[in-house]
Design a protein that fits this description.
37% of the residues lie in helices and 19% in strands. With 121 residues, the protein is an alpha/beta fold. It has a single domain, classed as 3-Layer(aba) Sandwich (Hypothetical Protein Ychn, Chain: A).
Amino acid sequence: MSDTFCVTINSCRENGDKATVGFVVATAALGSGKDTMVFLSTDGVWASVQDEAAKVVEGGPFKPLTELIKNFMEAGGRVVACAPCCKKRGIDESALFPGVEIAGGAVLVEWLSNGSPNVSY
């Protein structure tokens, strides 16, 4: 069994529920002792932008997306935003949550090639 886990999220503005549930599952994986990475792509990269994530407030039973992201990262989770996806959307690094990495798909491929399970939202 792998000691790692990956959650890929490809929606935020289009469907905030997917980003919210993705971070809930990622936090649960951390709580289960898994080294966990969230990889954000396409519309999902908006979750890495603090002002955009603040717009996603799904309500009970979930916490606001901003709080979920901060809790995940403070607990040791890794968040990677797809570099070409950020570039396409004009996302500036200064707008991101502190600690979010911008990288290409090779980071995801490397993570998964080590046997990490993956769920996608």
